[in-house]
Structures are given as structure tokens and as C-alpha cells.
Design a protein that fits this description.
CATH topology: Aspartate Aminotransferase, domain 1
Distance between the termini: 73 Å
Largest sheet: 5 strands, antiparallel
CATH architecture: Alpha-Beta Complex
Order of helices and strands: HHHHEEEEEH
Helix content: 25-40%
Strand order of the largest sheet: 1-2-3-4-5
Strand content: 15-25%
């Protein structure tokens, strides 16, 4: 008996990802926001109509309890350390503090409030505030558990060092 040649399956027609716009259910259902094209508005403001600082305020209120208090205290210290710090709202609800690049993010979990410094591995930490994400080459984090206090002076020194590490923005050519 002669064997039939195997037919290859027809290949599905594909198009490069870049040619198809990404759709998000949340974006496609909402009506356009009036004034969204205004210069100087951050993307989160265009998307929600609220500045990031208000979203962070709301997040702190929603957390409540020790986690809300801790995030509020750390936020205040960050802003004291660098009054020119920019507050942002990224990654579906993460407070981010930036100055010429990301300085740190603030996340709240069930048992910990975590402050992750984007380039923390290069920052001197003589009082050893960093106690999480110690194995990587880039990030470092501070996990704050209920009842723990962070040395305000040492924390502000870390924030200042992170800002200095980011440096001024690159000049356009």
C-alpha cells in the first residue's frame, strides 16, 4: 500500500502586531474626555480626568488603617526630600514618584507597604533601610510591616540620593 503524502496545514494569515492597534475594553467603552488634547496633561489625567496626586490621595483613603497611614507618611517624606518630585499613577494603580526618571514606587499588600527604588542597587544605604529585592542588580525595596517605623532622615537621604543618581535630563541634539 502506498503512503499518501502528508498535507501541510494551511498557515493562518497573520499581520504584524505593529499594524493592529491594541484595544482595551476599558478604553473602547468610554466616551472621549473633553479637552483630552490639552498640552501639558499627563496621560493619566487624559484617561481619568484626575491628576495623579488626587488618585494617590484616593488610594491612601481606600487603604485606610495602618497601610494608608504608612503610605501617606512615606509620601510626605518623599515630597519633603525633594519638593520638585513629580507624582504619577502608572501600571493600573501604582503611585510613582519621579524626578528625571523614576525614583520609587509605592505599593500596598496585605501584610506590607513596599517602596521600590528603581535604581536602588546603586544608592548607598548605610543604615540598611533596604530589606527586600536585595539580590538584583538594579532595584532595591523597603518593606514596612504593621507597627514598624522607618528612620525619616535616612529615608529622605535615600530619596535625595536616588534623585541625584537620575541626574538632569539628557540634552536634545
Amino acid at each position: 500500500m502506498a503512503q499518501r503524502p502528508k498535507k501541510s496545514k494551511p498557515k493562518a494569515k497573520t499581520t504584524p502586531r505593529a499594524s493592529k492597534p491594541r484595544k482595551s475594553a476599558a478604553w473602547s467603552r468610554s466616551a472621549p474626555i473633553e479637552g483630552a488634547g490639552q498640552a501639558g496633561m499627563r496621560s493619566i489625567e487624559r484617561a481619568t480626568g484626575k491628576p495623579a496626586s488626587r488618585l494617590i490621595d484616593q488610594r491612601i483613603r481606600d487603604l485606610g488603617g495602618w497601610r494608608g497611614e504608612t503610605l501617606a507618611r512615606m509620601r510626605a517624606l518623599i515630597l519633603e526630600a525633594d519638593p520638585e518630585m513629580t507624582e504619577e499613577w502608572k501600571w493600573m494603580g501604582t503611585p510613582v514618584w519621579s524626578h528625571h526618571g523614576i525614583v520609587c514606587t509605592g505599593e500596598a499588600y496585605t501584610k506590607v507597604v513596599k517602596l521600590t527604588f528603581a535604581r536602588g542597587a546603586g544608592i548607598p544605604d548605610p543604615l540598611r533601610l533596604f530589606n527586600s529585592s536585595l539580590e538584583g542588580n538594579t532595584r532595591r525595596a523597603i518593606d514596612i510591616h504593621e507597627g514598624e517605623k522607618v528612620d525619616a532622615g535616612a529615608f529622605k537621604a535615600l530619596v535625595k540620593a536616588a534623585v541625584a543618581q537620575n541626574g538632569p535630563p539628557a540634552k536634545k541634539r
